[in-house]
């Protein structure tokens, strides 16, 4: 069984998370500059078997598209074409707030919380965990 990779796609940087090989636990991997994302994923897939991607799907509270939605959908197509693996969309509303709350509850220092990369990685974990819970993993 391969891992599932969660992606919190951003125009500048992207947070990544992955399941363990048994697809039980989601853990943060890295925050990568978006321009290097495909190359990073190619190297990751050379080292780890991956069954699917879960991509955060940005939506407004009223379920309409955000300014980022078209970029995410373009990236989804690129992922599917590059890796020939399923790409599942997962609602990412509130993930940044949930990630910030988790960092505060976890006792992360304010200096570390200010690093946007930490927020992106944790958001990717939340997106992936949400997908896993909705699918009964």
Automatic annotation (TrEMBL):
One of its GO terms (molecular function) is hydrolase activity, acting on ester bonds. Its main location: cytoplasm. GO terms for cellular component: cytosol. Keywords: Cytoplasm, Hydrolase, Nuclease, Ribosome biogenesis. SUPFAM superfamilies: Ribonuclease H-like. Its EC number is 3.1.-.-. It holds the Pfam family RuvX. It is an enzyme of class 3 (hydrolase). Could be a nuclease involved in processing of the 5'-end of pre-16S rRNA. Belongs to the YqgF HJR family. NCBIfam families: RNAse_H_YqgF. This is Putative pre-16S rRNA nuclease.
């Amino acid at each position: 069984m391969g891992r599932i990779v969660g992606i919190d796609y951003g125009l500048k940087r992207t947070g990544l998370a992955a399941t363990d090989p048994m697809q039980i636990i989601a853990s943060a991997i890295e925050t990568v500059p978006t321009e290097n994302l495909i190359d990073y994923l190619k190297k990751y897939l050379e080292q780890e078997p991956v069954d699917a991607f879960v991509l955060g799907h940005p939506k407004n509270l009223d379920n309409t598209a955000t300014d980022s939605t078209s970029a995410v959908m373009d990236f989804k197509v690129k992922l599917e074409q590059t890796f020939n693996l399923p790409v599942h969309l997962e609602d990412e509303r509130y993930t940044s707030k949930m990630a910030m709350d988790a960092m505060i509850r976890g006792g992360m220092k304010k200096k570390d919380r200010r690093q946007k990369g930490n927020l992106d990685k944790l958001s990717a974990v939340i997106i992936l965990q949400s997908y896993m819970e909705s699918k009964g993993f």
